[in-house]
Specification:
The protein is of the alpha+beta class. The protein has 10 helices and 8 strands.
């Protein structure tokens, strides 16, 4: 008979990181996971998030932890800018877009929610692999459009910097940006800055 520990090790071999609830066919694995961490067979890299000791952890793993904690969310705004290497902003919390208000952030993990629905939520979602785990992140164009839409939350100067840096770095086309701007209903806000951009 295969033990819980053996099942967890077999599952961990195929995952760069995982939560206790991800493990199939293992009921109440937390006690076993705690022993495995104590014995250095696994490492705990976040609240309820585990990995193998040999896996290299980089700055984007907090994005995985965020979407594991809050399924259905999309990485957005400053966190998406940082992922796409647009601008100079360093996120001190993970920015997530949601289309519902059914969850609220917990104090043990630094996350900020913004909310939208319809095209403003679905437009520009890209799937990226972070350590072998698929994460939903807004495209560069959608990220710029969101920066202008939510300028009161992140600052207009941040939005303008992102627009210029993203355009200079050829991270989006004008058509891509315009599609995202229309989805976000931010045309009036961004128009003057677009005109300066293409002069």
């Amino acid at each position: 008979m295969v033990s819980k520990r053996e099942k967890i090790l077999a599952f961990a071999a195929k995952q760069s990181m995982f939560r206790a609830g991800d493990i199939p066919d293992v009921i109440e694995p937390r006690a076993v996971l705690s022993r495995m961490v104590a014995q250095k067979e696994l490492i705990r890299i976040g609240h309820g998030l585990y990995s193998r000791p040999e896996v290299e952890i980089n700055e984007n793993y907090s994005l995985v932890e965020a979407v594991k904690r809050y399924p259905g969310s999309v990485i957005c705004l400053i966190s998406a800018m940082f992922f796409h290497k647009i601008g100079t902003q360093m996120p001190y919390e993970i920015w997530l877009m949601r289309n519902d208000r059914k969850v609220s952030p917990k104090t043990d993990f630094p996350v900020r929610f913004v909310y939208s629905s319809g095209d403003a939520f679905t437009c520009g979602i890209e799937k990226h692999s972070v350590g072998g785990i698929e994460v939903n992140i807004y495209s560069p164009a959608k990220t710029i459009a969101d920066c202008f839409k939510y300028r009161n939350k992140i600052g207009l100067d941040v939005a303008i910097e992102a627009l210029h840096e993203g355009w200079k770095g050829k991270r989006f086309t004008m058509d891509e940006l315009w599609t995202a701007v229309k989805a976000c209903r931010a045309k009036r806000i961004i128009q003057p800055y677009l005109e300066m951009l293409v002069k």
